[in-house]
Design the sequence.
């Protein structure tokens, strides 16, 4: 008989999914492994889906990775469907599968949407830790949804010297809820949140490029989780432009950085990747910096692996047979 461990969201939370300090450590460690050549990670494979009128319906994305030092491989099957909230479903619906790279044996299947949110927040926080200008104390968080909420907790875990966390959302009650959880304050407007901030983190689904260059301090880090939230001038005037996986970013037509590159406005030579920076150590100094991570499978797998190992120790989850007996193998 061959079994797998099934972990639902409740089991993952019991295993420590919401320990944002550990999530930040996970992301830091796997970025160093990536820089050292210890991660095998093909680019994402996406199926883009459209309605009959040609408007985007959503996408299904396969994200595989093999993290050699941890002895684990896995894949996230990620779905993002824009009209799901109208159907009473979340925008993102993800599943993660972990496998033994020695035999290919599937180890675990788990709910992946909350893993995605937590690791995305942790990636933003690691970016802030390594890229923020010297002496950064004030952070603006734009967007208080699930990912924004995770980013707020991760920022608190990664930046103990953070003096002020401003939260803004179009739905004030969501901003108020996140601000209460992390000891932040609600900003009265988008501009109020951004002006004077040392770090600006955007975590929305907007494509309106709402962060204006004129609002930003000379020394400022913009962490763009949503990919189309900074006006072009912010990116083009930035002293440092950092991504997580440039080959992957270039392939996504809807991403601002990819569009600017295709238009010949953003030379490839200006784009850096975060893993070598984390491996070398914090980037000191100041200036305008942009970090625009698209998300990498190795980040999901490193968090999922920790949760799987903890669940095994604590007998969490449900063991399911792939088969009991068969004469076909």
Sequence:
């Amino acid at each position: 008989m061959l079994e797998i461990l099934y972990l639902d969201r409740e089991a993952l939370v019991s295993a420590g999914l919401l320990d944002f300090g550990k999530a930040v450590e996970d992301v830091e460690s796997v970025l160093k492994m990536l820089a050292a050549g210890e991660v095998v990670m093909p680019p994402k494979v996406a199926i883009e889906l459209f309605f009959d009128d040609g408007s985007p319906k959503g996408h299904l994305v396969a994200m595989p990775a093999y993290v050699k030092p941890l002895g684990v491989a896995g894949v996230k099957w990620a779905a993002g469907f824009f009209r799901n909230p109208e159907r009473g479903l979340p925008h993102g619906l993800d599943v993660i599968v972990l496998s033994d790279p020695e035999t290919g044996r599937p180890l675990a299947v788990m709910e992946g949407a909350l893993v995605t949110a937590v690791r995305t927040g942790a990636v933003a926080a690691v970016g802030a830790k390594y890229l923020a200008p010297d002496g950064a104390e004030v952070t603006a968080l734009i967007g208080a949804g699930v990912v924004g909420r995770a980013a707020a907790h991760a920022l608190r875990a990664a930046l103990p010297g953070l003096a002020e966390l401003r939260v803004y959302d179009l739905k004030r009650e969501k901003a108020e809820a996140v601000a209460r959880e992390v000891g932040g304050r609600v900003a009265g407007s988008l501009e109020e949140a951004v002006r004077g901030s040392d770090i600006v983190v955007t975590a929305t689904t907007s494509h309106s490029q709402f962060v204006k260059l004129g609002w930003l301090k000379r020394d400022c880090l913009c962490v763009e989780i949503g990919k189309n939230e900074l006006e072009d001038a912010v990116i083009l005037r930035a002293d440092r432009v950092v991504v997580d996986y440039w080959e992957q970013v270039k392939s996504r037509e809807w991403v601002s950085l990819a569009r600017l590159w295709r238009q010949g406005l953003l030379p490839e030579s200006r784009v850096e990747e975060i893993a070598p920076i984390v491996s070398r150590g914090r980037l000191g100094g100041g200036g305008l910096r942009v970090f625009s991570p698209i998300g990498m499978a190795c980040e999901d797998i490193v968090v999922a692996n920790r949760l799987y190992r903890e669940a095994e120790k604590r007998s969490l989850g449900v063991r399911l047979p792939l088969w009991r007996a068969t004469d076909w193998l």
User: Anything to note?
Assistant: The chain has two domains: 2-115+298-323, 122-295. DSSP finds eleven helices and 16 strands in the chain. Residues 26 and 306 are 8 Å apart (CA to CA).
